Amino acid sequence: MTRFFLAFLTTLLWLPSQTAKSEEINLICTGKFEIDRGRLIKPDWETTYLSINLDGLISKINNGLIIKEGRTIKRRGSYYITQRDKNRKVKSKYSINKILGIYSVEYPQTNRILIGNCEKGRG
């Protein structure tokens, strides 16, 4: 009887459990650069599509041309996404306030800041 019970328990352990999918929030963010650059041929606003992973893993950033990935941290009612290059230098820092819907992107290498607002998108 005990061998049957142990065999039953080991088969339960070997059965694959249901895989859990991580939850994501999809946001559409539009912003302008902080410095007034005057009249340009190209508009100075930028639309970004964010897919924020709530488990604190990798989030996706789509600016229409390239899909980038960054590490997500959730702190004090805001999401912080840090994108790094191959040499582990910070390329951009995204901060999104989930209560007010305000987001900012800091580019430390070029010393530019993008400020705008976000709204929930379909995903």
Summarize the structure in words.
Helices cover 11% and strands 51% of the residues. It starts with a helix and ends with a strand. The protein has an 8-stranded antiparallel barrel. The protein has one helix spanning 2-14, and strands at 24-33, 45-53, 58-62, 67-75, 78-84, 90-97, 102-107, 112-120. β5 and β6 (90-97) form a beta hairpin.
List keywords for this structure.
mainly beta
Describe the secondary-structure layout.
Blueprint: H1 2-14, E1 24-33, E2 45-53, E3 58-62, E4 67-75, E5 78-84, E6 90-97, E7 102-107, E8 112-120
- Give the helices and strands as they follow along the chain: HEEEEEEEE
For the biggest sheet, the summary is: 8 strands, antiparallel, barrel
Spans of at least 5 consecutive residues with low confidence: none
Beta strands, count = 8
Distance between the termini: 52 Å
Judged by helices, strands and strand pairing, the structural class is mainly beta
Q: What would the average pLDDT be, to the nearest integer? A: 79
Beta-strand percentage?
Answer: over 45%
Strand order in space, largest sheet? 1-2-3-4-5-6-7-8
Helix % is 10-25%
Q: Report the radius of gyration as a whole number of Å.
A: 21 Å
* Helical run tally: 1
Shape: elongated
